[in-house]
Each structure stands twice: as structure tokens, then as C-alpha cells.
Write a structure and sequence with these properties.
Blueprint: H1 8-24, H2 31-35, H3 43-49, E1 56-60, H4 66-73, E2 77-82, H5 85-98, E3 103-106, E4 119-125, H6 135-145, E5 146-157, H7 161-164, E6 184-187, E7 198-201, H8 208-217, E8 221-228, E9 241-243, E10 246-248, E11 258-264
Parallel strand pairs: 1-2, 1-4, 2-3, 4-5
Antiparallel strand pairs: 5-11, 6-7, 8-11, 9-10
Bound molecules: S-adenosylmethionine.
């Protein structure tokens, strides 16, 4: 376990370094199916992205790279970034094992460098923004990594779930952000509930309006925003039905489980 005086960022990095080897073996991620050729992408981001063959994609918070490598299998030239050295090492090993020519870099997505050759598409999906304290710094980095006319695709769990399912997401219970994130000691993970790992983790709540505003403030143009009555994994016990890898309930009233945003950098 980490020291109590660790910064939230360092505590979270330690947590993700611990989760990575557990997730590599977790049925949740089904790495053997990926190695055998299955894609880990969901229809939502695939539809938002459109044709990606030949595009340069930056995949932010790529974890150990299954989605990044799935985009590469569709013909994109992919760079995956994550702040966990363990996740990036695992992603590089998987790329080598599959013979997929993708690039993986360790980086905090709140401190992205401006690349010499910016990307056509920045993609970030499923369990990403809650780990970021500074959304404006993130949005600024997204803009600087897009070529003029390039697009961002964000798909994430809906922040209203904090209020609908109090305590089951981060424990924050409010739709609106708290003045500061409170760390929680956690055992196991969403992908391996019984895993014998324990760590301190910090999450931040961002409203849908806050996410969109951070992108508009950077001059990105909003192209589409959508909310979905299903989830990319059975996040809550009422999500008992699955179609095309998306989980929903036929018993309870539909909640917005995920949302997506597509935004474009202007031509300058
Ligand atoms: C739930 S996973 C990403 C979801 C991905 N679709 C998946 O399931 O494989 C969240 C990822 O965010 C990364 N992460 C958290 N905070 C970060 C930061 N500040 N900069 C870069 N990566 C970060 C973690 O290391 C982790 O790999």
C-alpha cells in the first residue's frame, strides 16, 4: 500500500500499476479472445469514428492497449498513452506478441506535449474522466494533439450515476463535483472483484456540462453529444441483458449509463 502523504496522482498511478497484471488475466478483459483476433471496441465508438483506415489515432488512457490495438487492426496508425508504466509495458508486449505496429507512451493526459505531427483523431473511452482533476488541462492537450480539422471522440460512464447509485461509483453521491476529491481505500477492482490487491484511489466528478464546456473553452466545436440507456459492461446488477457487447435492463426504468461527445478542432 502507498503512503498516506502520496499525491492523488501518485496514488492513482500506483493503483493502476497494481491493477494492470490482475486485469491482464481477468476474464473481464478476455485477453486470450483478443489475441485470437477479437476486437474489444464497442459499436458506439466505432460508429462515432467512422472509417479509420489510414488515420493517425491518439488513444488516451489506453490501459494495457486492447482497444488501441483493436483500432490498429482496423488499419489506423495508433499511439496509445497512459500514465501507468505497468500498463504501457503490457501494451507494448501485447503489440509485439500480435505483430501490430502501434506506439505506446507513458504520459499524464493532463500534461500532454504538443506533437510535431498531430493526430486525425483523439479517442478516449470508458472510465476515463473520473481520474482527472484538471479537465481544462486535459481539453487543452486534446486540442494541441489534434491537427486542424481533427476530431475528438469521448465515450464515458454518465456522471449522473453518482446520484442514481450513491456510493457504488466513487462514493461521492452528488451529481455536482465536491470541492476536492476524497481518497478511498479499495480492494479488488471493477474487473476482478476478488483480486487480492488494495490501494488508495482518488476520483473526480465532472458534470456533462462541465465536460462540454472544457472542450468549448479550448475552441473545439461540438459535433455530437448523446446519452445511452446501456453500459459497456454490467456496471450494476440491474444490467442483466446484453446485445452487441452493451448491457441494459428490461426490468427497471432506463437510466443514462453512458454519454458520448464528438468535437472537432477548427481549421486553424
Ligand atoms: C478504466 S481504464 C481505461 C479504460 C479502457 N477503455 C479499458 O477499459 O481498458 C482507465 C485508465 O486511465 C489511466 N489513467 C488514469 N489517470 C490518468 C492520467 N492522469 N493520465 C493518463 N492515464 C491515466 C489508468 O492508468 C487506466 O489505464
Amino acid at each position: 500500500m502507498g503512503a498516506d502523504d502520496e499525491s492523488p496522482l501518485e496514488a492513482n498511478r500506483r493503483a493502476w500499476d497494481l491493477m494492470t497484471p490482475v486485469h491482464l488475466d481477468a476474464p473481464f478483459y478476455d485477453t486470450p479472445a483478443f489475441l485470437a483476433g477479437a476486437s474489444t471496441l464497442k459499436p458506439v465508438e466505432v460508429a462515432l469514428a467512422g472509417e479509420v483506415a489510414g488515420l493517425r489515432i491518439l488513444h488516451l488512457q489506453c490501459h494495457f492497449g486492447l482497444d488501441s490495438l483493436s483500432w490498429a487492426r482496423l488499419g489506423a496508425r495508433v499511439t496509445g498513452m497512459d500514465f501507468s508504466p505497468a500498463a504501457i509495458a503490457a501494451a507494448r508486449a501485447l503489440a509485439g506478441q500480435c505483430g501490430i505496429p502501434a506506439d505506446f507512451k507513458v504520459a499524464d493526459v493532463q500534461q500532454l506535449k504538443t506533437p510535431d505531427d498531430p493526430f486525425d483523431l483523439v479517442v478516449t473511452t470508458y472510465g476515463v474522466l473520473c481520474w482527472l482533476e484538471d479537465l481544462d488541462a486535459w481539453a487543452d492537450g486534446v486540442r494541441r494533439n489534434l491537427r486542424p480539422g481533427g476530431r475528438l471522440i469521448l465515450v464515458d460512464f454518465h456522471p449522473v450515476l453518482e446520484a442514481l447509485h450513491p456510493g457504488k461509483m466513487t462514493g461521492a453521491m452528488s451529481y455536482f463535483p465536491a470541492p476536492r476529491a476524497v481518497g478511498t481505500w479499495t480492494r479488488g477492482s471493477y474487473a476482478a472483484r476478488d483480486a487480492t490487491i488494495a490501494y488508495h484511489e482518488f476520483r473526480w466528478q465532472h458534470t456533462v456540462a462541465g465536460v462540454v464546456t472544457s472542450l468549448l473553452d479550448q475552441g473545439l466545436a461540438l459535433e455530437a453529444i448523446e446519452e445511452y440507456p446501456y453500459s459497456s459492461f454490467p456496471l450494476f446488477e440491474e444490467l442483466t441483458h446484453c446485445r452487441d457487447g452493451l448491457w441494459f435492463s428490461e426490468e427497471t426504468a432506463a437510466h443514462p449509463y453512458m454519454f458520448s461527445v464528438a468535437a472537432r478542432r477548427g481549421t486553424t
